[in-house]
Amino acid sequence: MKLVYTNGSGILVAQVRGNLEMAGIECVIRNEYASGAVGELAPIDAWPEVWILRDRDLERAQQVVRQLQTDDGEADWQCRQCGNDCPSAFDYCWHCASDRYGSIAPQS
Looking at residue 97, what is its pLDDT? Predict the structure, then answer.
């Protein structure tokens, strides 16, 4: 067995598991219910993990995970006003509130 993915978000971990299973790669989630151990363990040690069952699937599993991490359809962008790096999911810069194209967002 090999660890191929871990994240604090159980939703993302489940998505990775689902995509691996669709690719024909057998896997399991570990630490799914370990959040109750935080305090005794460091938070990152209680994150859910995706493990593949067959070591020979490691390279293909890593490709599936990489594809998921870069497959949001858009690239991250840099704010034209302040130069801050912004995730592709953001339409406005979290630092200066300008939109992707340099216009300042209206303040409410």
Answer: 85
Cα(80)–Cα(64) distance, rounded to whole angstroms?
Answer: 33
pTM exceeding the 0.85 threshold for the entire prediction = no
CATH topology of domain 2-70: Alpha-Beta Plaits (3.30.70)
Residue 25 has a CB neighbour count (10 Å cut-off) of: 20
Burial class (CB in 10 A: 0-12, 13-18, 19+), 3: exposed
Q: Which of 46, 43, 51 is nearest to 33 (CA)?
A: 46
DSSP state of 72: S
Six-digit token string for 14:
């489940």
